[in-house]
Amino acid sequence: MKSPDLSVQLGPQNKRGLLLSNPLMTASGTFGYGTEYADIIDIQRLGAIICKGTTLKPRQGNPQPRLWETASGVLNSIGMENIGIEALIKEKAPLWAKWKVPMIVNILGESVEDYGKLAKRLDKVAGVSGIEVNISCPNISEGGLEFGAKPKSAADVTSAVKAKTTLPVIVKLSPNVTDITDIALAVEEAGADAISLINTLRGMSIDIKTRKPVLGNICGGLSGPAIKPVALYMVYQVAHKVKVPVIGCGGITSTNDALEFIMAGASAVQVGTANFTDPRTPLDIIDGIERFMKKEGIRRITELIGAAL
Ligand SMILES: Cc1cc2nc3c(=O)[nH]c(=O)nc-3n(C[C@H](O)[C@H](O)[C@H](O)COP(=O)(O)O)c2cc1C
Questions:
Q1: Does the active-site annotation cover 249?
Q2: Structure confidence by residue, pLDDT tens digits, 36-56
C-alpha cells in the first residue's frame, strides 16, 4: 500500500486556509519558538508548531518555583513569560519564513482590545500561518481565563481577533468551566476557524515540611497524562456540537492517545508536556499513525476523524 494521506485542513472556511501535512502539532509553551529544537529533531516533519504565548509587551512571568512534578502530570505557573510581539516579529518570524512547517502564534491579552491589536500586528507577517487565541490561561491574574470562562466574553475576544486579521484563527478553550460546549458554540458563532482544547486544569501542591504551597503563585495548571481522559471527553463533547475543526490536546504521549483524540473528533492533536520528557514524541506519533493506517488499510486520516462519534 502506498503511503497514506495524513494531511488535514484546519481552516476550511478561511480564504488563506491552514493545511497541515499531518495532524501532529506541538502545544504552546512546551516547544519554545521551534528554534530551540531545530538541531535536535527534524521539526519540518511536524504538522505545525505553536509558539509560546505572546503578549503586547514582554512579560517576566510569575515568581519561582513555577514547575512542579505530580503523579502523572506537571503543575506549571509560568505566568506567560515571553519576549513580546515586537521581538517575535523582528527576531523569530524571519527564521520561520524560511521553514516548511507552519508556525502558529499563540496570543494572550489583558483586554479585548489587546487581542485585536495582537491580531492586527500579526496579519501580514511573513512566517506566520495562523493565530491561536489563548482565552484559557489559568496562571495570570488579568486576562486569560477570565475571557474563556463565559460565552459572551469568549465570543467578544474571537470577534475582535477576526475583525483584525485574515489569518486562520484557532480559539483555545479552558477546561475550568461548567460547560465547555457553551463556550465552543459561542466562539464558533463569533467566527473561529477552529477550536483547540484543552488548556491546563487548575491545581496546587503543598510542601508538608514548610506547610506552604509549593508554587510561588500558589495555583498552577495541571498537564500531562493525568488530564487525558478529561481532555478526551471534552473533545468528544465539543466535536458533537461544532462544525469547525477541533484540535485535541491534553496528556497525549503515544500513538494510541493521538488516535483516541482523532476518533473522538479531533482533526489534529497537540503534544505538550510529553515534549519535556522526549521532544521526539510528536514525530514518533506521526510514524505510529502511519503504521496504524497501513495495517488497517486506511488511505486518508480524514476517514478516522470522529470515528467514535
Ligand atoms: C510549561 C507550560 C507552559 C504553557 N504555556 C502555554 C502558553 O503560553 N499558552 C497556552 O495557550 N498554553 C500553554 N500551556 C498549555 C499547553 O499548551 C497545553 O494546553 C496543556 O499543557 C495540556 O497539554 P499536555 O497535557 O499535552 O501538556 C503550557 C503548558 C505548560 C506545561
A1: no
A2: 999 999 999 999 999 999 999
CA 145 – CA 139 distance, rounded (Å): 8
pTM of the model: 0.97
User: CA-to-CA distance for 293 and 304, rounded, in angstroms?
Assistant: 9
Q: Residue 90 is placed in which grid cell? A: 523582528
Residue 2 banded pLDDT, cuts 50, 70, 90: confident
Probe residue for ligand 1, chosen from 30, 62, 171 as the CB with the greatest number of ligand atoms within 8 Å: 30
Let me know the angle formed at the C-alpha of 240 by 52 and 174, rounded to the nearest 5 degrees.
30
Distance CA 241, CA 224 (A): 26
H-helix or E-strand containing 201?
strand 201-203
User: From CA 46, how far away is CA 285, in angstroms rounded?
Assistant: 10
C-alpha distances out from residue 251 to 45, 78, 171, 221, 229, Å: 21, 18, 19, 13, 8
pLDDT digits (tens, 9 = 90+) for 156-177: 999 999 999 999 999 999 999 9
Tell which one of 81, 273, 275 to mutate to probe ligand 1, the residue whose CB is within 8 A of the most ligand atoms.
273
Q: How far is the CA of 275 from the centre of ligand 1 (A)?
A: 11
CA distance 161 to 224: 29
Distance 28 CA to ligand 1 centre (A): 5
Identify which of 85, 103, 105 has the alpha carbon closest to the alpha carbon of residue 43: 103
State the sign of the Cα–Cα–Cα–Cα dihedral 169, 172, 177, 180: positive
Q: How far is the CA of 199 from the centre of ligand 1 (A)?
A: 6
How many residues can be counted in the chain?
A: 309
Q: Which atom of ligand 1 is nearest to the CA of 67?
A: 1
